[in-house]
Amino acid sequence: MATRRIAAQEKSLLNKDDHTVARPSASGQKSNTSPAVPLAVIVKLLAFTFAMIVLPIGSYFVSVDNLFKGNSTYAGALAAVMANAVLIGYIIVAMAEDQSDETDSSPPSADGSAAAAIKEGKKDR
């Protein structure tokens, strides 16, 4: 057989005791229990998810009788356009959030202001 068998005196990787890892509770530090994703990001995602469900379906049923007089093809096309509008809106909000994260984490310039560092970066372009 091509696999190696573990002898009884050897410990597998799962059975090894790792005493070299410093645990936060043992060293006196508090563990970080904050969520990995900020609450604002979760709220935006839930809002756009709700809009992606409600806006196209709602626009279809409102427009099929009121706007297009029973023509479901045009109402379906409007629903598709509304779904694309929600998707494009989400992309724009996500890009704006990503750009704001970059400007917040930019290193300060010689006088200590981040705004001066951004202006210097724009001059270099």
Question: What report would you give on this structure?
Answer:
This protein has a domain at 36-102. It is 61% helix and 0% strand. With 125 residues, the protein is mainly α. The chain has helices spanning 24-27, 39-66, 72-104, 114-124. α2 runs antiparallel to α3 (72-104). The chain contains four helices and no strands. It comes from Schizothecium vesticola. Residues 105-117 have a biased composition (Low complexity). Belongs to the VMA21 family.
Short description:
The chain is mostly helical and 125 residues long. It has a domain at 36-102. It is built from four helices and no strands.
How much of the polypeptide forms β-strand, as a percent range?
Answer: under 5%
Mean pLDDT: 78
Secondary-structure class = mainly alpha
Series of secondary-structure elements, N-terminal to C-terminal: HHHH
Weakly predicted, low-confidence segments:
113-125
Shape category = elongated
Count of DSSP strands: 0
| Computed Rg | 28 Å
N- and C-termini, Cα separation:
62 Å
Percent of residues in helices comes to: 55-70%
In this structure, how is the largest beta sheet organized?
A: none
The number of helical runs is: 4
Family: Belongs to the VMA21 family.
Transmembrane segments: 39-62, 74-96
Keywords: Cytoplasmic vesicle, Endoplasmic reticulum, Membrane, Transmembrane, Transmembrane helix
Membrane topology: Multi-pass membrane protein
